[in-house]
Amino acid sequence: MLLQKISGIPILLAIVGFILSSCAALPGADARKYPPSPEKRVKKNIEEGRGFRLSDSFSGGSGTFEFASSNPLWRATLDSISFMPLAAVNYGGGVIITDWYSTNDTNESIKISIRFLTNEIRSDALDIKIFSRECKTASNCIISEKPDKIVPELKLKILRIASIYSKQQKVKNFKPYTGFDNERD
Fold it and tell me: What is the pTM for the complete model shown?
């Protein structure tokens, strides 16, 4: 009887250890960005559209879905390269590839490949590659990667537009919270 109780202890310790170690892997937040008062944190989260309201459950909607159009970085990228024909677009895979594009009747054209490394609006969120194709004849073309000033300019343009879209989205999602009658400072 005692031996059966002892044999279950290592399993229990392993489960508890696993649970505790998995809690450390959760992404944390910067405590300086959030008020210490729980009431103020709830208010801030709900006003920014990250909270839950019971009244929203009965408003007839079936829920909130994340589409590519709700990602400011994705929208800004598509708006920035909207003049170019697209060859492949995969929101799930985070890739946009344009078709070959030329501005005039020269034999040179460019192709842009954009990979999304994160949905956050930051300088390392995008991996942009620009390829150049120069054709002497229809069957004699030289393709090379074009490492010039276009990549940083395009990245900066996308990040600026995404920042504007993100601010607009926060303003749109803002709903004042009036859940606490006596709010503490």
Answer: 0.58
